[in-house]
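Protocol step 4 of 6: structure prediction from sequence.
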Amino acid sequence: MRTDIDDFELESGSGDEGSGGFFTLALLALAVGAGSALLFAPTEGARARELVGGRLRELRGGAGVALARVQRELGRGEARRRRERRMSALIGLAVGAGVAALLVPESGPEIRRRISDRLRRAKEKTEDEVERVVREPQPDPEPAA
């Protein structure tokens, strides 16, 4: 009887590096697994399929419940973040308005008048510049070399 397992090879020695060795090994593993299942099965096939199917249904149901719980918690977290953002915006608005009211050097109507005057002057300056560019003759572009 041979006891030297160091020289044992599953692939043929022909040097063919195809998928034949892998396929042969897969078939051998399939046969060994099927034989083991037949020899060591605790119950008959129909009963085993019934047990495995029931356990898979339980897992699927439990996974559905867990998924629903995770989705509900994510929704709660998103709602909480939206509330926090709204509150932050309102607090920032209130603080900004309070600081502006305390530090403004002039009254509201005076500031609005100054802003309006500056915008009117900028508009007039832009219109004058556009008129100048339109009236001014443009040089002819040089021909490409």
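Step 5 (inspection) to follow. The radius of gyration is 42 Å.
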